[in-house]
Write a structure and sequence with these properties.
Elements (H helix, E strand, L loop, with lengths): L3 E2 L15 H12 L7 E2 L10 H34 L3 H14 L6 H15 L3 H14 L6 H14 L3 H12 L5 H17 L3 H12 L6 H16 L3 H14 L3 H17 L3 H9 L10 H18 L4 H11 L1
Antiparallel strand pairs: 1-2
Length: about 325
């Protein structure tokens, strides 16, 4: 047992000493000084400053803890990548979300946030979840080099969930920051399609015309011209619709699209009572293998319309000549 002498000056004398001459002198000192045994009590050392070993141990524990946390972060990201490589996209998204929940301030958070948003959009088609993550990314990392990409993809997700106004806002907000002309035209075409779906045909027509203005014929122009022709047709602007359809019919390499454009031209000619031109267009159109008799039936229908029109014409001379010709 250890004991401390209760000296008035506050010094402690350790009684757990080996049997040395120094300890014998201490015992003699206590006897001679007539110190009461009640002044001796068990104790621990009064000086408890950390030793070098304690400091080293604490440093090691801190290092191991930090290393363990780092390993845990790395393990989550590795697991996410491994799941993605195996096409287990739901598991990959879960790992990335767990990483973001446990390490919101990590230097890998920007990467993880954009990756999980992309997985929800591209792989899982869960656009509502993708929207949430893209919004987080845009708000948390406004200076990221991927901020333009994130806003474009956010707009795409809004479009897929039919939130067209929100999508248009994102596209318009980021459009001026995009230098690639093809991408700028693609976004403009998306904006036009959304105005069309919102039944704002006037604004849609203006946006489609921006897509084709000064551009060579390509897939984007093809889609825009078909829409321009369709809107003009719906608005009874047949003379303006025909050039758009003609551009597609003479430029496209797709037989299905060419047939669609030629059908649009035929519609416009019929509406403007140019039955002969409509029939000629259809006769020069390749039939659809799935409906090989459709064109002939349509031609027959147009001829009947022409006959009925001639019968009801207020010009007897023209009517009689047509009738004699039919005979």
């Amino acid at each position: 047992m250890r004991f401390t002498e209760c000296k008035p000056n506050g010094f402690a004398i350790d009684g757990n000493l080996p049997p040395t001459p120094a300890s014998e002198r201490l015992q003699n000192y206590l006897i001679k000084s007539n110190i009461s045994p009640r002044c001796l009590k068990p104790h621990t050392r009064t000086y408890n400053a950390p030793t070098f070993k304690n400091l080293l141990l604490r440093a090691c524990l801190l290092t191991l803890t930090t290393f363990g946390i780092s390993c845990s972060r790395g393990a989550l990201l590795d697991s996410a990548q491994e799941a993605w490589d195996k096409a287990d996209y739901a598991a990959a998204a879960d790992y990335y979300e767990q990483f973001l929940k446990e390490n919101p301030g990590s230097d890998k958070a920007e990467f993880a946030r954009l990756r999980v948003a992309t997985i929800y959009q591209r792989d899982l088609k869960r656009y509502d979840r993708a929207i949430e993550h893209y919004i987080h990314f845009i708000e948390e990392f406004p200076k990221s080099p991927d901020i333009v990409q994130a806003r474009v993809q956010l707009g795409d997700c809004y479009g897929m969930t039919k939130k067209y106004r929100e999508a248009i806002s994102e596209y318009e907000g980021v459009w001026s920051k995009i230098s690639d002309q093809s991408e700028r035209r693609r976004l403009r075409l998306n904006i036009a399609d959304m105005y069309f779906d919102l039944n704002d045909r006037g604004q849609a027509l203006a946006e489609y015309q921006k897509v084709v203005a000064g551009a060579l014929y390509d897939n984007l122009a093809e889609r825009a011209y078909l829409r321009i022709g369709g809107i003009r047709l719906l608005r009874d602007e047949y003379e303006d619709a025909i050039p758009a359809y003609q551009t597609v019919a003479s430029s496209t390499k797709d037989p299905v699209i060419r047939r669609t454009a030629r059908f649009g031209m035929a519609d416009c000619y019929v509406r403007t009572l140019q039955y002969d031109l409509a029939i000629r267009i259809l006769e020069q159109t390749e039939p659809d293998p799935k409906s090989p008799n459709y064109i002939q039936k349509r031609i027959a229908n147009i001829r009947e319309q022409r006959r009925q029109r001639n019968l009801s014409s207020p010009f007897p001379l023209k009517r009689s000549s047509k009738q004699s010709g039919n005979q």
